[in-house]
Write a structure and sequence with these properties.
Layout: H1 9-14, E1 19-23, E2 28-36, E3 47-54, E4 60-65, E5 81-84, E6 87-90, H2 98-112
Antiparallel strand pairs: 1-2, 2-3, 3-4, 4-5, 5-6
Length: about 120
């Protein structure tokens, strides 16, 4: 039996390449990079993604991505993680709808503190 298609995946893929100014006064902006890739042990959901918040100077302040392995992670394990300045923690990807929902409150809090 085929795996049911996630209808929210198209919405997430439509965000690919989008950049939004989320704090005009502070100069903060978010960028979405989301592409399909072959399903693998490292990317079992078939996505390569990076959702990032940047400060006025372009520095990444918050990010959710699966672009690289993190410390003590074994080769072939899912690569999903989140960044907060220089801190990296594992992130459990659940589905295309949950990813932006998890990212949003993180960057909103960061902008509220004007970091």
């Amino acid at each position: 039996m085929p795996v049911p298609r996630d209808p929210t995946l198209d919405v997430l893929l439509d965000l690919d390449g989008q950049v939004f100014v989320v704090d005009p006064e502070g100069g903060h902006w978010v960028r979405f990079v989301v592409t399909r890739v072959p399903v693998s042990r490292g990317k079992p959901h078939g996505l390569d993604y990076a959702l990032t918040l940047h400060g006025p100077d372009g520095e990444r302040l918050v990010g959710f991505d699966n672009a690289h392995r993190v410390a003590r992670q074994k080769l072939g394990e899912p690569q999903d993680h989140r960044h907060r300045l220089r801190t990296i923690k594992a992130y459990e990807y659940r589905d295309a709808a949950t990813l932006p929902g998890d990212f949003g409150p993180r960057w909103t809090r960061c902008c509220a503190r004007k970091e």
